[in-house]
Amino acid sequence: MPADERFAVRRDRARASVPRPLAAAPAPSGVPLPDGLALRGRLATGARRPGTPRGSGRGGPGSRTPRTGRGGGPRRTYERARRAWDRPLTAYYVILGSSLLITVLGLVMVYSASMIKALDISKPATYFFGKQFLAAVIGGALMLLAARMPVKLHRALAYPILMVTVFLMVLVQVPGIGMSVNGNQNWLYLGGPFQLQPSEFGKLALILWGADLLARKQDKRLLTQWKHMLVPLVPVAFMLLGLIMLGGDMGTAIILTAILFGLLWLAGAPTRLFAGVLGAAAAIAFLLIRTSPNRMSRLACMGVSEPDPEGGCWQAAHGIYALASGGWFGSGLGASVEKWGQLPEPHTDFIFAITGEELGLAGTLSVLALFAALGYAGIRVAGRTEDPFVRFAAGGVTTWITAQAVINIGAVLGLLPIAGVPLPLFSYGGSALLPTMFAVGLMIAFAREDPAAKAALAMRKPGVRWKTMRRRVKERPSGER
């Protein structure tokens, strides 16, 4: 048989082997077809459904359906952000990341703001930066240590830390041992260029001891009685406040008072009791401010835009000048004008003003956003735990850092009196940086103690992940995987 004929036979056989769609048989008169047969007949004959536009079949222009899994606008973006925030390790990463970013940016700004001050006292330009960097390294080790310590060990250290802090605060008031810096008798000389301010460690001591005390009383159901809620928490706090006020440091006393109120609030103090303690503290503060000309002058500098002819409110006015000259993106790192002797304490209490001058509004808003993220993550840790000690301690640390940041930034902006407190993790000062970084490590440890976070961290270990992957691979009948 010729090749052309063999090819024609094969083609006819191939066509005959392809199944053809069955056409719908016409229904007898008056007898309707069942729905399934009628639909099958329409699909087989290519008839389109009523109301379906032409070209909407397979491959037509109307065959693609809109995708809802991507995009979706602001609503979907908000839902994604909310789901990401609800993940078990979100608070852990936010606390760790925001605190490290604040510390690193603080080191950069300390170097930029303090170089002129260091040269003015005949020191190298990196004098203050070197001391701050050493304190940051030690503080990082303390933060890592606190983050790895179990909660039981933190509770066990509460009483020793409180007793050592009280002893050092008493030692400060002994003539010949304590030192006076800027009119405050709150320092101990450690030798060389190093000094220690024990009152900064008093904040950490009050938080740990107060959280342990309130947790034990809550376990015994004693916090429903006002005497158990106040005693001995309030007397010990007033003892620490008295030792601090003997040295004249009212700024630290304000932060300690905020921590006390935070602990009472978390313990569920009744409104009358809370208002009574708040009223007593306000009356004492008013008396202390009224009897001190220095504190009255600071109170009078709120909201000023220029110094008076006698030189009063100089620091407050030049802090506003520094912020105003920064603009949107600042004059650049190292290009500040106010740090050349115009603004006192540019690397400590008023470092936020130098940040605004050199980095502009974008830099100051970034610092505020980092503090807001750190505070919100601390509230999340305190609100999601079942352990009362963790709730009280995390709430106390969050109150401490946020209250101190608000007081410092409010003073720079002219909204609050100048209290003389540093910006946490940001301003120069090793005595303030060390306990603050330990407190941040405390919150990291609490975030790791959450059961869901523990499970997520365990899944990230290489050994656990390998075992999990091996479990998911089923064995074949031949024994291969």
N to C succession of SSEs: HHHHHHHEEEHHHHHHHHHHHH
Helix content: 55-70%
What proportion strand? under 5%
Mass-distribution shape = globular
Total helix count? 19
The description of the largest β-sheet is:
3 strands, antiparallel
Question: Averaging pLDDT over every residue, what do you get?
Answer: 83
Structural class: mainly alpha
| pLDDT < 50 runs, ≥5 residues | 21-69, 464-481
N/C terminus separation: 54 Å
What does this entry look like structurally?
The chain is mostly helical and 481 residues long. Helices cover 64% and strands 3% of the residues. Strands 1-2-3 form a three-stranded antiparallel sheet, with helices on one face. It is globular.
What's the short story on this structure?
Helices cover 64% and strands 3% of the residues. It contains 19 helices and three strands.
Topology:
Elements: H1 3-17, H2 35-45, H3 73-85, H4 90-120, H5 127-148, H6 151-156, H7 158-172, E1 178-181, E2 184-191, E3 194-196, H8 198-219, H9 226-230, H10 233-246, H11 250-266, H12 271-290, H13 293-300, H14 314-326, H15 351-384, H16 388-412, H17 430-448, H18 451-459, H19 462-472
Offer a few descriptive terms.
481 residues, mainly alpha, 3-stranded antiparallel β-sheet, 3% strand
